[in-house]
Specification:
Number of domains: 1
Strand content: 5-15%
Largest sheet: 2 strands, parallel
Radius of gyration: 11 Å
Number of strands: 2
Strand order of the largest sheet: 1-2
Number of helices: 2
Shape: globular
Order of helices and strands: EHEH
Length: 60
């Protein structure tokens, strides 16, 4: 099992979201199936959102 951890600053600006989305795809294409994201701050919320969106996209 491969696990990807996302670690970022709680005050990450919203314009970083597109970069997070791009980075979520890379581990998926390498076979990662588990993601760990915190529950505090802007970065964690954006990373969790990107993972949820990728999950919907790749489950088709």
């Amino acid at each position: 099992m491969s696990i990807c951890f996302f670690i970022g600053h709680r005050d990450t600006p919203a314009d970083v979201y597109s970069q997070i989305v791009a980075e979520v795809e890379r581990p998926i294409l390498c076979g990662v199936t588990e993601f760990v994201v915190g529950h505090y701050g802007a970065f964690d919320r954006m990373a969790a959102r990107a993972v949820r969106e990728a999950k919907r996209q790749y489950q088709k």
